[in-house]
Amino acid sequence: AIHQFPASAAVLFFCIFVPISSGSVLSELSALQSQSPNGVIHLHDELLRRILSLPPPRPFHALVFFDAQKLHSKPDLSLATLRSEFALLASSFQLNNPNEKSQLFFFEIEFQESQSSFQLFGVNSLPHVRLIPPSASNPKTDSIPMDSSDFSRLADSMADFVAAKTKFSVGQIHRPPVISKKQIALIVALILIWIPFFLKKLIAGQTILHKKWIWMAGAIFIYFFSVSGAMFNIIRKMPMVMGDRQNPGKMVFFYQGSGMQLGAEGFAIGFLYTIVGLFLGFFTHILVAVKNRNVQRLVMMLGLFISFWAVKKVISLDNWKTGYGIHGYWPSSW
Amino acid sequence: RSDPMVAAKISQSPVDLLGASWFLKSFKLKTKQQELLIRVSILCLVYVLAFIVRLFSVLRYESMIHEFDPYFNYRVTQFLINNGFYEFWNWFDSESWYPLGRIIGGTLYPGLMVTAALIYWTLRFLRFSVHIREVCVLTAPFFAANTTLVAYFFGKEIWDSGAGLVAAALIAICPGYISRSVAGSYDNEGVAIFALLLTFYLFIKAVNTGSLAWSLGSAFGYFYMVSAWGGYVFIINLIPLYVLVLLITGRYSMRLYVAYNCMYVLGVLLAMQIRFVGFQHVQSGEHMAAMGTFFLMQVFYFLDWIKYLLDDPKKFHAFLRIGVTSAVILGSVALGLGTASGYISPWTGRFYSLLDPTYAKDHIPIIASVSEHQPTAWSSFMFDYHVLLLFFPAGLYFCFKRLSDATIFIVMYGLTSMYFAGVMVRLILVATPAVCLISAVAVSATIKNLSQLVRAKSKSVSVGSGKGATSTKASSKVSGAMDQSLPFQRNGAAALLLGAFYLLSRYAIHCTWVTSEAYSSPSIVLAARGPHGSRVIFDDYREAYFWLRQNTPPDAKVMSWWDYGYQITSMGNRTVIVDNNTWNNTHIATVGRAMASYEDEAYAIMRSLDVDYVLVVFGGVTGYSSDDINKFLWMVRIGGGVYPVIKESDYLVNGEFRVDRGGSPKMLNCLMYKLCYYRFGELSTEYGKAGGFDRARGVEIGNKDIKLEYLEEAFTTSNWIVRIYKLKPPNNR
């Protein structure tokens, strides 16, 4: 669509000589802003043209999110997430700074319908966010693109970007709660109704909580949760698997290096630990009660084999991961 | 070194040794006496083992204090010994946190120092003339050895004496514990784990016996723990939780009442004597659970008593309804009022970060920056526990199969501490005793069952006679099965026994190896492998600190990142701006800001702090990776948390931290960069590489032409690890 560029530039050139009063654009933008549910204005070529035709310095900053519906299906770009975070940023800004609402506008622009605007800014890769300061006359060179590091913490880091490049501070990001207030009320009501019945049962000793095995399963689960490093995954937000850098089609399940782990890796190892430990309990407490001696033997053999394999696997993986080769220590020299 | 270990394993079933016990028989000892003798001698061997396995660091390096915090403890201990207890208690230290100073007596846990001083005075009294440093170096191994004894008694209390012996042997060499208790690691945790386990043991003993004496003992154990380590909060929350569980499951008894009340009341009164803790037990939110449980218990037992008096169930139910409702309302109103009026302080950040692990990462960079506060990956668990991890779920299973007050406790201790260990690497230490005990239950019970099977033929031997052979339900089932005594079964059992011994001997090898390779490095002296496999020692830290001591005026103020504060005051004997006691975030942020600013701005900040010298740690020549450049982003984050002019993004290029040509301009010209890489461009570090090749980061640096305007190089150690700069006096106007 490169051939469109000179045309739109010509339009722009032309428009500079036909000044539109900034007041009318501003009021139109304010109207659009209040119509939009999250305060993000949908931008198209025509509107952008009119905005840019205002003589600098314009009375407002503009933060533009470049979107492409077609690319929403690509998970590694996470466009949809970023877009909703951008909307969150907009609504939080407008909520926190009602007086500065008309000094910083948030826009989104769609690739399919506004290709020429993409050209105008020279945007050829997404995700992309640009800030157009009031003084910008050339949209390509005078506007400020957001670094990829500014997306890293989603709305929070975008807010830092806004604070750094404009004089506005976004303030606290108002994330919608995972469950709405009505749902909370409903859940609380249900729990309140349920409690007396539960207490009655509890006193009578008939609940699932009186079963020893449920506590045992819970205990084993906590163990599994800890040793598999699940907490590490949560805190560091580690992915389950990772794409190989050299070979994009391949998945990396195990990360080499001791201070790090991937999600699936930890769960696999935790599972191996747990299975061996449980076999030990199972053999000594349940298997001995089995009447059929052949079944006993068979299960025992199988269990031993699996345990042996699991332990061997864990040890070799550990040595591979940490690079430590464990060996007997004999004091020949130090 | 693994021999005593294996011996300990064999001893689960004392009868197992009967084949070799002709020697004992010749002394005409009864079976019971023989068992006692074997048990005591094994325990002695384990005791010695626990001590000597921690001496690797002394053999490898020398008898010295390790790391960072221990240097502060050492300095304080020296002060205590030289000036006596009262001076120590009232000590105001003007050499740290300049210009604020620090009230030492009121801001530390004195248990460790007082313990070391007592040991020192005792030795002196016995006419052993030792240096205080040797006492400090060996305190942690000594207490680790004592911990094995406590573990034995604890194991005996929760299962049987066999499990106790195994637990003692396991904990003696468990890397999770060794990591904090090698010789030279003179830190609070060294004595605190002993105190922790002792408190728990005495409390369980009190619950099992209902005796005031044991309960009093546990109160004193708690006092010792409070005096030694901030981790006492774990005790004061775990024990109430345990009591609560016993109440709910209907396992309450008069024994529990006696144990908890005595322990809580006396423990709290004693703990208040520690100035650093003070009134926290009645004021801080972290301790409210214990107090709530205390009151709940009174109500609970009072109701029980009323029930006993009123034999009409209808009347009692009415009473119960009113009583419980009003008690709950009263309690919540009191808690709400206390919190609202500010009398009860809210939870601290560290506590929050345990409950909501993502809290620290977002809100408190100074907690998140410490390497030992990182979450634990599976390989760290493997490294610190090895086969114990495999035995742990089995041990849980065994404990559930034989529930008692004691096993409930150990399961709860194991699970809570295991969860916390997953949140923070350093809390693996707290989980270690529980893991060892629970695993010991599994190991001991399994081996006992197996060896009974192996010895099935001669089952006339009185198995049930010894204390160590309390037969479980499980083992009675096994003996039921072995009545048929098939030869195949015996062979299978023997094979399994061999397998278990193999696993345990691998454990012993792993532990010894880990201790010698990973946990015995003092980190004040660095060792590396030379090109021909020989050992190269870098003693740059001490070189720098002694240079400071010898060549700077006694009242000089040294600025460095807080990690080195304790070492500079202790070894260099000079005043520092910030140190490892991170009590004042603003002060640390000021230092971070200075390090991250351009030289002229930094100079103004440093002048305002009266700084004379700046010390940086640099690993570019040696490839030492935990240097200030790698810590630099944390300085920026902590500085930026207080002074918003410092922004992390200014030091990053596309989210990446770089020091080479592609680094951000602010990074390449900030004070820290200049001080680390001053004159580095002229130096050729690696053959075939251009000058200024940073070996720690593997890149050629981006700014080789560094001119210092306001500072001058004062001293650089032989391997460039520590570099000291002097501030030039301000220009005459």
Automatic annotation (TrEMBL), chain A:
Membrane topology: Multi-pass membrane protein
The family this protein is said to belong to: Belongs to the OST3/OST6 family.
Source domain of life: Eukaryota
GO cellular component: oligosaccharyltransferase complex
Signal peptide: 1-23
Name this protein carries in UniProt: Dolichyl-diphosphooligosaccharide--protein glycosyltransferase subunit 3B
Function text: Subunit of the oligosaccharyl transferase (OST) complex that catalyzes the initial transfer of a defined glycan (Glc(3)Man(9)GlcNAc(2) in eukaryotes) from the lipid carrier dolichol-pyrophosphate to an asparagine residue within an Asn-X-Ser/Thr consensus motif in nascent polypeptide chains, the first step in protein N-glycosylation. N-glycosylation occurs cotranslationally and the complex associates with the Sec61 complex at the channel-forming translocon complex that mediates protein translocation across the endoplasmic reticulum (ER). All subunits are required for a maximal enzyme activity.
GO terms for biological process, alphabetical: protein N-linked glycosylation via asparagine
Keywords assigned: Endoplasmic reticulum, Membrane, Signal, Transmembrane, Transmembrane helix
Locations listed in the record: Endoplasmic reticulum membrane
A Pfam family: OST3_OST6
InterPro entries: OligosaccharylTrfase_OST3/OST6 (IPR021149)
Main location: endoplasmic reticulum
Transmembrane segment boundaries: 184-203, 215-235, 267-288, 295-311
Gene3D superfamilies to which the protein is assigned, alphabetical: Glutaredoxin
TrEMBL record, chain B:
Lineage of source species: Eukaryota, Viridiplantae, Streptophyta, Embryophyta, Tracheophyta
Domain Oligosaccharyl transferase STT3 N-terminal: 41-438
Subunit structure of this chain's protein: Component of the oligosaccharyltransferase (OST) complex.
Residues making up the signal peptide according to the UniProt record: none
Pathway: Protein modification; protein glycosylation
Official protein name in the record: dolichyl-diphosphooligosaccharide--protein glycotransferase
Catalytic activity reported: a di-trans,poly-cis-dolichyl diphosphooligosaccharide + L-asparaginyl-[protein] = N(4)-(oligosaccharide-(1->4)-N-acetyl-beta-D-glucosaminyl-(1->4)-N-acetyl-beta-D-glucosaminyl)-L-asparaginyl-[protein] + a di-trans,poly-cis-dolichyl diphosphate + H(+)
Record InterPro entries: Oligo_trans_STT3, STT3-PglB_core, STT3_N
Organism of provenance: Genlisea aurea
Top-level enzyme category: transferase
Ranges annotated as spanning the membrane: 36-56, 103-123, 135-155, 161-179, 191-216, 222-245, 257-276, 288-306, 318-344, 381-399, 406-422
Subcellular location: Endoplasmic reticulum membrane
Keyword Cell division: no
